[in-house]
Design a protein that fits this description.
The complex is a heterodimer of chains A (190) and B (162). With 190 residues, chain A is an alpha/beta fold. Chain A has helices at residues 2-18, 24-38, 51-59, 94-103, 115-119, 149-164; strands at 43-47, 82-86, 109-113, 140-142. Chain B contains three helices and seven strands; from the N terminus they run H-E-E-H-E-E-E-E-H-E. The termini of chain B are far apart. Classes of the chains: A alpha/beta (190), B alpha/beta (162). The complex binds iron/sulfur cluster (SF4).
């Protein structure tokens, strides 16, 4: 019983810290930063296969990714925030994908676009990587072969909700909220 | 019914009778199975003979007949732009020495097709100018389209294995 109360207390403390902890100002700065980040994502389309057609559709005027503040494809990973991995990734391609990911500046997010990138999709053979999360971290998975544009938009909005919940400045790569290390406590929690 | 490729088969049988092992024109596809050691003679005849002039190598591929010998079959699809007829040439090579002469000297377009066949089946083309893997990477071991290559055996460059 005691342990449970303790845990509940520490959980609340961590949550309190996560949301800016001892500073009301930090929380507000975070919110503004994240609001800016989530609506000004520059994306890097890593397009390798048939899902690319669907990417063109969702990026084009009919579905218009721009409405969600994610419009500007940068063909240099150094200038982009969101790596969209669109299409089958083969083992031959895997080192290239890893290099592109490593070239991106923080903060960066990764969307696995389509069944192939989520899990290898229809290809269970010698050539295809069985999900890009075996080689790089993935923030949002959009399944479908290929996914409908609506699914991509839904995935993007879910990613934006996540971005809004992040802590700024992100120390290194942003992490899952559970993994965030609580900031150093300088004064006791009331 | 006059078949457009059968002129080629007749000519082959006439000029190189002991090179041609078997011919047929099943479903209208004129096909000749030939002796693999004389493949260049056959192709040169088909390319240069007036009236045949198969000037285009449309495809070059291979088939693995696991369990029968000779095991690999290299298949050439030829087309004549002038006469608009086609023929298919097949040559079986044994498992122990899967080797056949390269057709690059006759058809430069054979270069990458032969590299692909080498990559995926391990058939070696002698006198090929640059016989390297085409689709897979140098570190890959084995030839994945051989029937005895385990379908899901992966050889990743980065990340976990199977
Ligand atoms: S998920 Fe389907 S549509 Fe997308 S790349 Fe793979 S096979 Fe193509």
């Amino acid at each position: 019983m005691d342990a449970e109360i303790q845990k509940r207390y520490s959980d609340r403390a961590i949550e309190f810290l996560r949301q800016g902890g001892d500073s009301f100002q930090t929380t507000k700065v975070d919110a503004v930063f994240n609001w800016g980040r989530k609506y000004s994502m520059f994306l890097y389309p890593f397009v390798t296969a048939c899902c690319g057609m669907e990417f063109m559709s969702v990026a084009g005027p009919r579905y218009d990714l721009d409405r969600f503040g994610c419009a500007l494809p940068r063909f240099s990973p150094r200038q982009s925030d969101l790596l969209m991995v669109v299409g089958t990734i083969t083992h031959r391609q895997a080192p290239i994908l890893q290099k592109v990911y490593a070239q991106m500046a923080e903060p960066k997010w990764v969307m696995a676009f389509g069944a192939c990138t989520c899990s290898g999709g229809p290809y269970n053979n010698y050539a295809v990587v069985q999900g890009i999360d075996t080689i790089i971290p993935v923030d949002i998975y959009v399944p479908g072969c290929p996914p409908r544009p609506e699914a991509v938009l839904d995935g993007l909005m879910k990613l934006q909700a996540r971005v809004q919940a992040e802590r700024v400045p992100a120390d290194g790569r942003h992490q899952d909220t559970e993994e965030l290390t609580p900031p150093v406590v300088e004064k006791p929690i009331p | 019914m006059e078949d457009h490729g059968s002129a080629a088969l007749r000519s082959l049988l006439e000029v190189l009778p002991d090179t041609v092992l078997e011919t047929h024109a099943r479903l209208g596809d004129a096909t000749a199975c030939v002796d693999p050691t004389r493949i260049l003679t056959v192709l040169r005849h088909l390319r240069d003979e007036p009236g045949l002039e198969f000037d285009m190598l449309m495809d070059l591929c291979a088939v693995d007949f696991l369990g029968s010998e000779p095991r690999f079959e290299v298949v050439y699809h030829l087309y004549s732009l002038a006469h608009k007829h086609r023929v298919r040439i097949k040559a079986r090579v044994p498992e122990a020495a899967p080797e056949i002469d390269s057709a690059v000297s006759l058809y430069p377009g054979a270069n990458w097709m032969e590299r692909e066949v080498f990559d995926l089946y391990g058939v070696r083309f002698t006198d090929h100018p640059d016989l390297r893997r085409l689709l897979l990477y140098e570190e890959f071991e084995g030839h994945p389209l051989r029937k005895d290559y385990a379908k899901e055996k992966r050889q990743p460059l980065v990340g976990p294995g199977n």
